[in-house]
Amino acid sequence: MTKYIFVTGGVTSSLGKGIIAASLAKLLQGHGFKVTIQKFDPYINVDPGTLNPYEHGECYVTDDGAETDLDLGHYERFLNISTSQANNVTTGRIYQTVINKERAGEFLGKTVQVIPHITDEIKRRMLMLSEKGFDIIITELGGTVGDIESLPYLEALRQLRMELGEHHYCTVHLTLIPYLAAAKELKTKPTQHSVKELQESGVQPNILVCRTEKPISDDIRQKLALFCNLKKENVIEALDADTIYEVPLLMLKEKLDIRVLKELKLKSKGIPELKAWREFLKNLRHPIHEVTIGLIGKYNELPDAYKSIYESFIHSGAANQCKVNVKAIHSESLENPKSLKSELSGLDGLLVAPGFGERGIEGKIESIKFARENKIPFLGICLGMQCAVVEFARNVMHLKNAASTEVNPKTKNPVIHIMPDQLTVTKKGGTMRLGAYDCKLIKGSKAFQAYKKSQISERHRHRYEFNSKYLKEFNEHGMVASGINPAKNLVEIIELKNHPWFVGVQFHPELKSTVENPHPLFVNFVLHCIKNKKK
Ligand code: GLN
Predict the structure, then answer these.
(1) Which pTM value belongs to this model?
(2) What is the number of the ligand 1 atom nearest to the C-alpha of 382?
């Protein structure tokens, strides 16, 4: 029978619940259990697909085409498993389901209420993944205990404790122990209040994980145990780490896995199997190369907007025993030729990021020209690939005003145009080309060399595509299509023949890179950046 762990957060947001949940899951996976993680977000949007990166950071896309919270990226990167639509649920989706049922007459004349109808739907979704045969399902609750919008979720937790029974249910509460420099003391009061708040909702945490800058003493553990109604050994310290990938080992040292297994009456393996993980950390900590890669986008003050790209560089850097410094460059700043030169010279590689809309597009195109002419390794992702096509059309093929119709709908040379099935789309939510699609690689291409196979599947999130009408002309000028979607004959990868490494992909390789499976395109890109630096 499946066991359930719930992770709640107290005191402030941004404590890293996603990382703690993923680290715990990693340890349990190392003990041989089949584990997954899901996230429940208390906002009203049906999914984060329509939220802009300032609001919500990156939108992570799953194989089955769900637009989800970026924490799902951490889950996949840590666990090396694929998540799905069912792994991310919002209040919006819960209400949508309940309201649709009400309109269909399924409540038979009853008044539809938060309790029991909304909480029933929350519980149904919390338990749903058990059908897939998981031993343990971890549910991360978004938001902070005390938020009004979190209340129905805590109520669902309270009910589930009764329904599932003691050893099938475990709540881990992540909290902050602030250090007051003036008093030279760690303070437990905010945590006491946060646990009290949880208890008022009828939820007693089993385990307390305490984020802290300084080690917590035995006295503090004792005090927290006393005030929060916990066993002392269930008070876990979570010291700040220099990389998120260290956190599973910190949690191992604190025996979080053992405490949880005990609460759930599950047998521990003693020491969890983490060989590949430790190997990765060793490479990460002892690089023999170092490169600097420019990341060109329009949200560069906001690293969360490109979360998966940054993480992919960490994985592929370690795979190459290379420290990858990522220099975030604002595409708008590249529209001035002087700053373009000063920003881009000295870089060992360039990545042009995905994105939407017109802002900063000309700067992206200029930076691609720079990479093409100076033979700097280049990776273009989604919009970055589309910009590479536009740059080549304008500057090599001399197609006047070549553009994507997303930016210039009236261009005479629409080298990137809207996909035919997008023409009739009027609703914005969940209507892009989303999720995994097959792609066939041309033997001998740079893409093929990277993947070392000809059949791949990658995740997408876009409405525009390469306009195949121009394909022959591109070919003749030296830009070739090296990856094609077999079902619809769409161009998914372009590359340059006369360039050491210039690849543009319509899909998002960054969404499939994990610690144990660094993405081949990123690995190959970093390898070429190292070669370029040596030159
Ligand atoms: N805006 C482009 C499109 O919709 C690219 C999207 C992206 O980069 N994810 O096709």
Answers:
(1) 0.96
(2) 8
